[in-house]
Design a protein that fits this description.
Layout (H helix, E strand, L loop, with lengths): L8 E8 L13 H11 L3 E11 L2 H4 L8 H6 L5 E10 L2 E9 L3 E8 L9 E7 L8 E7 L4 H16 L7 E6 L8 H8 L2 E2 H6 L16 E6 L2 E7 L14 E6 L1
Parallel strand pairs: 1-2, 7-8
Antiparallel strand pairs: 1-12, 2-4, 3-4, 5-6, 6-7, 8-10, 9-10, 11-12
Helix pairs in contact: 4-5
Organism: Pseudenterobacter timonensis
Protein name: Endonuclease/exonuclease/phosphatase family protein
GO molecular function, one term: endonuclease activity
Length: 253
């Protein structure tokens, strides 16, 4: 039997979009962010803090799109997208989104909030590239600001990974807010996930704040897959587009 997917790889990008505004909400830069995201040529894009709806901003923000932000970013490059609403407030909501060049066969938003704290989600997408005999399981996450909450959320995510079909590739990306670097061990020991920058360089990438990255907040984890060319895009033209440096990598299945 010949497998049609002997050397299949896909490019993944993850970025916290800061709801489409520059740091301190000075300027709306979603159109520029879309242009920058396109230059990376990613097949799958994981977005955190992406605006799903807002009733006030469109009235006084120049260039505000007619569609949701994730539809605007997907545009013609990514044919499929999914959105998981997390934080809901009177004027709108924001959450995580996944843009994909390949069909998203199924998606669901897992609530990983802890107690009465800020709402947090894990957006799960089952993506089916036509050249593969099996799906790719993609999780897009944005974890809490408190260590105890993050530890609880990591346990929830490890449990989720362990429910997926054995042997199939898993990519988990996003803003883990893990400035104390406590996420790698539980995710590896409990769910077999490896962080690709740690595997390549011994520790996660510095991503925050983007103008002078000190904290290692953003991650890409894989299981049943390998990664090459992990890159933190602290390029000059990204610096005003988000307060986090985007991460990208080539994932080989």
């Amino acid at each position: 039997m010949t497998h049609k997917n002997r050397h299949f790889s896909l490019k993944v990008l993850t970025i916290n979009t800061h709801k489409g505004f520059t740091a301190f909400n000075r300027r709306f830069i979603l159109p520029e962010l879309r242009d920058a995201v396109r230059t990376v040529g990613a097949d799958i894009v994981c977005l955190q803090e992406v605006m799903g709806a807002h009733e006030v901003h469109p009235l006084h923000v120049e260039n505000w799109p007619d569609t949701t932000h994730y539809e605007f970013l997907a545009d013609t490059m990514w044919s499929d997208y999914a959105y998981g609403r997390n934080a809901v407030y009177p004027e709108g909501h924001h959450g995580n989104a996944v843009l994909s060049r390949f069909p998203i066969e199924h998606y669901e938003n897992h609530d990983v909030s802890v107690g009465e704290s800020e709402k947090r989600g894990l957006l799960y997408c089952r993506i089916v590239p036509p050249d593969l005999d099996y799906p790719v399981h993609v999780g897009c996450a944005h974890l809490g600001l408190k260590e105890a909450h993050r530890q609880a959320q990591l346990q929830m995510m490890a449990k989720w990974v362990n429910t997926l079909p054995e042997g199939e590739p898993v990519v988990l990306a996003g803003d883990f807010n893990d400035w104390r670097q406590r996420a790698n061990h539980p995710l590896k020991s409990q769910a077999g996930l490896e962080e690709i920058f740690t595997r390549a360089h011994g520790r996660p990438a510095r991503t925050f704040p983007v103008s002078f990255p000190l904290l290692r907040l953003d991650r890409i984890y894989v299981k049943n897959a390998h990664a090459s060319s992990p890159t933190a895009l602290v390029l000059r033209n990204w610096r005003h587009l988000s307060d986090h440096a985007p991460l990208s990598a080539e994932i080989h299945l």
